[in-house]
Amino acid sequence: MLTGEASHPDIPAGPIPMPSAVPPQRPSDTPRTDTRPAEPDAGENDAAAEVSGSLSAPGFFDACENADDDSPIPDGKPVPDQATQGQLFETDPPPWELTVQEDVAVASVVFRDAPYGPYDYRIPAELRDRLHPGMRVHVPLGRRKRPTVGWCIETKLGNQTGKTLSDVAEVLDDAPLCDRPLVRLVTWMSHYYQSPAGQVFDALIPSSVRASAGTRERTYLSPAPASADESVVDALPAKQQRALRLLIAAGKPMTASQLMVHAECTAGPINALRKKGLLSEDTRREMTTSMPTRWQTSDGEKTETHELTDDQSNALGRITAALDSAAAKTLLLHGVTGSGKTEVYIRAIEHVVKFGRAAIVLVPEISLTPQTRGRFERRFASVAVLHSQMTPAERHFQWQRIRRGEVQVVVGPRSAVFAPLPRLGLIILDEEHDGSFKQDSQPRYHARKVAFARAQSLQIPLLLGSATPSLESWYATQSGHAELISMPSRVGNRPMPDVQLVDLRIKDERSRGGAISRQLHLAVNETLREKGQVILLLNRRGFATTIQCPSCGHVVACPDCEMPLTHHRDGGKAVCHYCDYTIATPPWCPECRFDGIRYGGLGTQKLEVEVKKRFPEARVARMDSDTMRRPGSHQKVLSAFRSGELDLLLGTQMIAKGLDFPNVLLVGVINADAALHFPDFRAGERTFQLVTQVAGRTGRGNRGGRVIVQTFSPEHMAIQAASRHDYLQFAEAEIANRRKFNYPPLGSVARIIIRGAVEDVTEATANSLLQRLESSRERLGAEVRLLGPAPPPIAKLRGKYRFHLLLQSLDPLQLGATIRMATKTFKIPEKDDVQYVIDIDPMDML
Ligand SMILES: Nc1ncnc2c1ncn2[C@@H]1O[C@H](COP(=O)(O)OP(=O)(O)OP(=O)(O)O)[C@@H](O)[C@H]1O
Ligand SMILES: [Zn+2]
Ligand SMILES: [Zn+2]
């Protein structure tokens, strides 16, 4: 989960190169409202936070007003802006010192590694018609010798800086890579997540699109103006004449080879025409691939349109009402597992498509099974499924289809929230509580929040669906920011499965030397005898989770992270699950040479060994990120399970999500406490979600189903509520817990991670950042609680020491402003080699 940190370098904390263009007078993301007193209920909950955060996030909605114009340069003077008064902009020149040069065309440009901006550049006359917002440009930046790539976010008339601007050197794109609403989304995200806008663009536009993967340049020929002279054409030799007349008659450009085919000639006459200046040439890019679909759609499920249950038609009625009202409404579909939420999504999308609009369906990556895909592909003429195993060319191809408006439904993981559909009518997040919707590298956005912002700006509904809604979404329904739609029963009135808790503190319940209790053992045997299928959940991969010497107590740990290594039996490796550091598992203690090192703790590999020993006749498969490395392996195991070639599936949370197999009669949870005692305020919520979701995999057919949950904390509220399928009880109790400390959804949290190679230098940097935060808080009069710096649970990662600071406030705007002010001029000497990362609304505290 932490791999993002290394592969995506975060904001460089060193000095930021200042552009030679005049520093920004008024960044379009001016936080002008940040210092304003909170609205009465702003920050009371996440939805309120979302409403106020995005509505007032300047740049996002401000830009809406004047950006709908398609001419490259909006006419009229830029609207004067009062934002320069805030303390945040003391360094800006006072307005009366500015001399406005009204006739200068100006482009506002943002960058990947220059956090503040946008920066203004002059657009030379010859580029005026070519440059539009959403295109990339080459511009000079700072003392760099070579031009830097930037993104144009606005074009306007009038240089307000009072200084001479540098010129845009080159326009890099033929057409904008995103439309105005998406440019506004970028500006908002950059502001809210405090991430350089250039980085947000990189997240928004796939690299395959930026690199034009799967395309090639082609030269097109059309008649040059000189060919209008009939006498010239008449004087040409026959072949040249025929070719030229054909091209004129065609009325559209052709490639040389097309023209050769049509005019039945060789390259000679065409080259002659070129030389005579009778042809003009135009280079265009075209896709080399046509329809690259390596995915097969069929998964053995029948295509059927169900007659809706009462719950489903009620839900659909309320969603279509929202669609028809053309309002930016948020709806939460809380439907128990197996209540038929997917059918409701499909019907809602049919309604959207009927009016010529399109929809985005976001799902956790692991749910992008052939089953999910098939359900959408069978019901719509044109579906684009985005997934991580696409080649760059495929991704680019799909992106172009989407942008051309050829796609009705886009199904994909979190980044699909940026799909450039021209007529978007609805955004759906299925399993909206899922942690994979938060990106753990820069920009650290949450797809739910971005979807909300996009839906707001387009005035379209956002539909969130889950059997175990996040408390953020749930609380939004309680405070009137979202509409709750409930589907409390399963399709066909199937009962919810019976859940039995096994108290592992009782010695007789445990099995000697194994992980499977007596009761679970009996239940598995019984189920196998009835030809039913079994799912066993253990949320830890590997064989043994600690390697410890019983003689001296030494624990074999990662030298870079100081976390215990996990023993993997295949290949006898000891692996760090945080950074992938791998060694051969030592046969004796590396400290004292004691020959009898012990493998403690339980992972899925060890469980697999035990299962095969206990149930030798069962056909077993293991599903975790170790066995699922190869593309397609996930689908392969699932279709074997569906077709009955497997009896028992064991694995990590991968098996807990969205699977719909009617013959699963038993679900066993090996250790429900695994996530319960994490130092994270969401530990209870995650446990509840995981147990409820995996329990929901059974009882989906006509043969019923039951669940056995092994736990050391059977009385814990999260486990009790999950065992009764009682979301309401859980949500109420958990909201009361969160209220005590104003944790989300009641308040907002941000986290700053400071990391460096030298421990005390890192800590000192964290402390000076804290001081800055304190003084910003004071200057802004912000009510923000500051915690830390302290080492997080993962105190060292990949050789870097880590400290974190937590900020907490009822008002997300005050929280954001405090960080923005404190970090704006915070510079860390390069020799210290310390970086920091801002994580707004963090989803993990490790
Ligand atoms: N109206 C209906 N009549 C009969 N069967 C239906 C109906 N609607 C859905 N189903 C079937 O019920 C099963 C469960 O539906 P679905 O997978 O959409 O549930 P879900 O609410 O998404 O559950 P989960 O949250 O567990 O993923 C599917 O096999 C689906 O085909
Ligand atoms: Zn030892
Ligand atoms: Zn490590």
UniProtKB/TrEMBL annotation:
Domain Helicase C-terminal, chain residue ranges per copy: 584-736
Polar residues bias spans: 288-298
InterPro entries: DEAD/DEAH_box_helicase_dom, Helicase_ATP-bd, Helicase_C-like, P-loop_NTPase, PriA, PriA_3primeBD, PriA_3primeBD_sf, PriA_C
GO molecular function, one term: 3'-5' DNA helicase activity
GO CC term (a single one): primosome complex
Keyword vocabulary terms for this entry: ATP-binding, DNA replication, DNA-binding, Helicase, Hydrolase, Isomerase, Metal-binding, Nucleotide-binding, Primosome, Zinc
Binding site for Zn(2+) 2: C558, C561, C576, C579
This protein's record includes keyword Coiled coil: no
Pfam families membership: DEAD (PF00270), Helicase_C (PF00271), PriA_3primeBD (PF17764), PriA_C (PF18074), Zn_ribbon_PriA (PF18319)
Chain residues that bind Zn(2+) 1: C549, C552, C589, C592
UniProt-annotated stretches for the region Disordered: 1-93, 284-310
Chemical reaction(s) catalysed: Couples ATP hydrolysis with the unwinding of duplex DNA by translocating in the 3'-5' direction; ATP + H2O = ADP + phosphate + H(+)
EC number(s) from the headed UniProt entry: 5.6.2.4
Keyword Nucleotide-binding: yes
Cofactor(s) for this UniProt protein: Zn(2+)
Functional note: Initiates the restart of stalled replication forks, which reloads the replicative helicase on sites other than the origin of replication. Recognizes and binds to abandoned replication forks and remodels them to uncover a helicase loading site. Promotes assembly of the primosome at these replication forks.
HAMAP family given in the database record: PriA
Protein name: Replication restart protein PriA
Gene that encodes the chain: priA
